[in-house]
Amino acid sequence: MFIFTEPPYWLDEAYSSAITKLDIGLIIRNEAMAPIVKSVINKWFDPNGRFIDYGGGYGMLVRMMRDRGFDYYRQDIHCENLYAESFDIVDIPPFKAEVLTAFEVFEHLIDPVAELEKMLALSDTILFSTMVQPHGDVSPDSWWYFTPETGQHIALYSRKSLQALADRFNLNYNWNEQDVHLFSRKKINNSLFKIITHPRWGRWYNTISGERDTFLQKDFLSVQKRLRENLMPPSKTILD
């Protein structure tokens, strides 16, 4: 079953503050997702590629992944970029990402089919999180994930509806039976996906995979150069 609101006429008001007061788990969620992203990339994808965090909020995950040595960029039409200001997809020429992440995004989508089409134009692999309906007769009174107070959760999925969405685009669908999902052109063993995205086993796999060189110093110098160029007065032509 797929649950959707009436046409959401209230979204301008709902997104007057992109991050709601109820999203008190933003920091711990990024801390939990960063090692999962790292383990998935290390296992099945090219860690030397480029990556996009779609609906990336303040840019926290982008900064965390760049600090871990992954060339990550942010996309978000609603939220101010605070932590990855110079690493938005608008800052560089268009590219096809090795993996696109979209954590706590799908439940915000007015048209999931159209939005997934946009994501697939950016990457053939979508790693995302959303809670799956725990049973068939959920309601705002029986399931906290509705969060009607915020007005932002307008699309809620069952396992079957996510499979239908994947099938529409001929994508392979993996789920770790919690809140992490993968749509991809690449076929991946789901039992192994569950292991790699498990907090304990994923961290173990990251340990044996080794650390990558951080982008921290490189990014610092890049941002510093941009700032200095913007502060310098325009050059003048001197005629003898």
UniProtKB/TrEMBL annotation:
GO molecular function annotations of the record: methyltransferase activity
Keyword DNA-binding (UniProt): no
Keyword Methyltransferase: yes
InterPro entries: SAM-dependent_MTases_sf
Keyword list, A-Z: Methyltransferase, Transferase
Gene Ontology BP term (one): methylation
Protein known as: Class I SAM-dependent methyltransferase
Organism annotation: Spirosoma aureum
